[in-house]
Amino acid sequence: MPEKKKLVVAKFGGTSLQSAECREKAVDHCRALMEGTEKLIIVVSAMGRQGDPYATDSLLNLLSEESSTGEKDRLMACGEVISAMVMASSLRAGGLQAEALTGWEAGIKTDGVAGNARIVSVETSLIEKALESAQAVVIAGFQGVDRHGKLNTLGRGGADTTAVVLGVALKADEVLLFKTVESIYTADPEKVPFAKKLTRISAEDLRHMAWQGAKVVHPRAAEASLSAELPILVRSFCSGNVVTEVVPKPLEDTRYIVGVAAGPVVSGFTVGGSGKPSVFFARLFSRVAALSVSMDMFSVWGCSAAFTVPEGDTGKVSALIEEMECPYTVKGPCAKVSIVGAGMHGLKGVMARFCRALDSAGIDALQTVDSHATISALVSLEDRDSALAVLHREFVE
Amino acid sequence: MPEKKKLVVAKFGGTSLQSAECREKAVDHCRALMEGTEKLIIVVSAMGRQGDPYATDSLLNLLSEESSTGEKDRLMACGEVISAMVMASSLRAGGLQAEALTGWEAGIKTDGVAGNARIVSVETSLIEKALESAQAVVIAGFQGVDRHGKLNTLGRGGADTTAVVLGVALKADEVLLFKTVESIYTADPEKVPFAKKLTRISAEDLRHMAWQGAKVVHPRAAEASLSAELPILVRSFCSGNVVTEVVPKPLEDTRYIVGVAAGPVVSGFTVGGSGKPSVFFARLFSRVAALSVSMDMFSVWGCSAAFTVPEGDTGKVSALIEEMECPYTVKGPCAKVSIVGAGMHGLKGVMARFCRALDSAGIDALQTVDSHATISALVSLEDRDSALAVLHREFVE
Questions:
Q1: Weakest-pLDDT range from A86-90, A330-334, A380-384, B281-285
Q2: Chain B: closest CA distance from residue A362 (Å)
């Protein structure tokens, strides 16, 4: 008989806990896991999706627009607390000795950024104490408290991050992310129908895929596993099978580009300034930041700057630039399309192939940016899917 | 122009916050209060009643029976947190500068008894800080944390207690309890149709009425006001008018019995023991307590004991006594009916009139108990309403 794993962290998302039937199935998964595991940590998201009463979006909809992020945080955190208590109850009804903890009771400390906090540390003693008496400890994901005891949430997908961070902090043997998807793919299969399943991906590549817009695993979750030798397995909530293995180290045996991804709908600005460039840029960027607008794809030349902002913020950014009396152009709707792969670092000619591929399909790259692990182009929204397809054909197939 | 009150605490119960329309009306009440008040503390219960998704009972229904009281506490506390955040948002939408705090953020410390905690102290500095920037601070009622930081709830009606305790701690000018009732009555008008409205009642009498089963104000809320010179006004949520004034000092100008009340449905046990009485009673009562069954109407004579337990616990208490091999009888369903009035202390002949009144209506008192402010009899459930009526006629009219 193989030796039991000492500790496994399993995370269930909102759709996996949506109904009593779904929770029943989640309990079945946990019961099966207990056969090969001594102790189980179960991290949960809020139950269900928009429309279900305890889902994050439904809770947020109870508030009017101008609510403070702190109030939103405390309201949203209730979704996962409710879910944790309910899941512990379901596990016990299913014959497992389970106990539930909120994020703050589990010792999860954050940096205090409301609505998008990072976990800075975990005081594991509280979880370890709970594990002494219970086989399974359910922990409310997506939340923690800052050093003043203030509740914070971790941003969309944050329960993934909770699971991986807890796995690292508790020296778990394995982290399982139960997902209602069939796999992690080389591209979003809704946009690129011939996308391929990725049975293995390095944590670093997964992180870049996630930051570039792939929605399967929260980027900070992948990030958290990088520093530790902690395997993450994405399992199908439906079949229970492992669909993708996320390995902490770079993979030697794969091609250097793992996939393509597209980000949200944005507008691309180019702004011409005057005077001393450093003064102009400091003024422009700090005024945009003061609007709480997040910018991407910065590039500057001379006294001119290009950047993108979320499509919904186009109006207020335009107004600001007009107030500054600068000439500018704005293009949209656009999207950033990227090729991702930490292995491309140092390879020559990739950018040339990237631009040639887009050009061969008649697609204008309005702007490009690159890092050691990604090359991205801003394209018209109408060109997005064909850009993904042509890049996938060029680099992934 | 009359001087403004410095600080008023206003509490809204679940039915007063059930729908967006109700919350709108609650905001109207708050706006009207702000005209005569510098700062407002608003204490809220969970929104709605059984069936509404965020009501206490609906949250509890998500759990299976055997959940720990600690988990129930943390789940239930979400109801008031959600309510507080939503109410603050509604107040802001209505033009008031409002901020929301959870019970623990408001510095409410409890004794750690899950599901039925008492507030032991309030660290008011956190609320005072919030009051510096906001006109109105909304606080989640019914909750606090013990010295280990564990969430506790205060038991049914606990938001009343939160409001009064905060009123005392913050030296408020006044506590307003908005209720969807027309008045506090001399008896439950559903059971005694000729019950009279009480426009004034002393906090002590109100407390006894509540402990004996009158449901309008949480007994610990009345208790909390006893030690302070703090007036509590029960206001109609519908009309906004004051319906009953709860005065901290005994009233000089009222009759000595303020009302009659009936408790929940119970079973009456009599048990015969053997051996040394003190040993037998210690064994019996500690074994019943170990079942988490709350007992009432204790009386002991020789080696025999009588007591009541909630009707739902009859089976397990019977089983325990059979296991102890003691002779016993159990009568039920029964109810305790009481006359209440701190003024009856020292008066002669009250017990005689009490028994005569029941007898005149052909009602058997299965057992009686009395204190300085109450006289109670255990009667068959079918006799309950006529017992209340005859006692009301004898003592209140």
A1: B281-285
A2: 50
* Per-residue pLDDT, A263: 92
> What pLDDT was estimated at residue A282?
81
Is B85 part of the contact surface with chain A (CB cutoff 8 Å)?
yes
Phi, psi of B265 (to 5 degrees): -75, 130
- Of the candidates B221, B244, B222, the one whose C-alpha atom is nearest the C-alpha of residue B233 is B244
Instruction: Name residues whose C-beta falls within 8 Å of residue B362's C-beta, 6 or more positions apart in sequence.
Output: none
- Counting every residue written for chain A, the total comes to 397
B81-120 residue pLDDT tens: 999 999 999 999 999 999 999 999 999 999 998 888 999 9
pLDDT of residue A219: 81
Tokens standing for residue B201: 């009642």
Closest C-alpha among B98, B107, B79 to residue B137: B98
Q: According to CATH, where is 3.40.1160.10 located in chain B?
A: 5-180
Architecture category of domain B259-395 in CATH: 2-Layer Sandwich (3.30)
Considering only CB atoms, A63 lies closest to which of B66, B78, B86, namely: B86
CA A382/CA A364 separation, integer angstroms:
11
Q: Do B85 and A62 touch (CB under 8 A)?
A: yes
- What's the mean pLDDT in B221-245? 88
Q: Is the pLDDT of residue B6 over 90?
A: yes
Q: Which of A350, A381, A349, A380 is nearest to A364 (CA)?
A: A380
DSSP code, position B381: G
| Tokens of residue A188, six digits | 């979003």
Contact indicator for A8, A174 with CB cutoff of 8 Å? yes
Q: Tell me which residue of B362, B367, B397 sits closest to B382, measured CA to CA.
A: B362
Q: Is B62 on the interface with A (CB under 8 A)?
A: yes
- pTM (2 d.p.): 0.81
B199: tokens are: 């426009």
Partners of B99 on chain A (C-beta within 8 Å) are 68, 71
**At the fourth CATH level, which superfamily is domain B5-180?**
Acetylglutamate kinase-like (3.40.1160.10)
Residues of chain A with CATH 3.30.2130.10: 259-395
Which tens digit of pLDDT belongs to each residue from B127-161?
Answer: 999 999 999 999 999 999 999 888 999 988 899 99
Residue/partner pairs of A127-133 with CB below 8 Å, 24 or more apart: A127/A41, A127/A101, A127/A166, A127/A170, A128/A170, A130/A99, A130/A101, A131/A7, A131/A39, A131/A41, A133/A97, A133/A99
Tell me the percentage of chain B whose pLDDT exceeds 70: 98
Closest CA to A90 of A132, A40, A31: A31
Q: Which two tokens stand for residue B358?
A: 């029941």
CA angle B288, B291, B293 (to 5 degrees): 70
Chain A closest CA to B34's CA: distance in Å?
A: 21
Which residue(s) pair with A308 in the sheet?
A268, A296
What is the rounded CA–CA span in Å between residue B337 and residue B391? Answer: 9
Lowest mean pLDDT among A190-194, B36-40, B349-353: B349-353
CB-based contacts of A45, cutoff 8 Å, min separation 6: A11, A12, A13, A14, A17, A56, A79, A80, A83, A141, A142, A159
Q: Does any CB of chain A come closer than 8 Å to the CB of residue B22?
A: no
**pLDDT > 80? residue A252:** no
Q: Is B382 helix (H, G, I), strand (E, B) or coil?
A: helix
The ipTM value here is 0.74
Contact A67 B54 (CB under 8 A): no
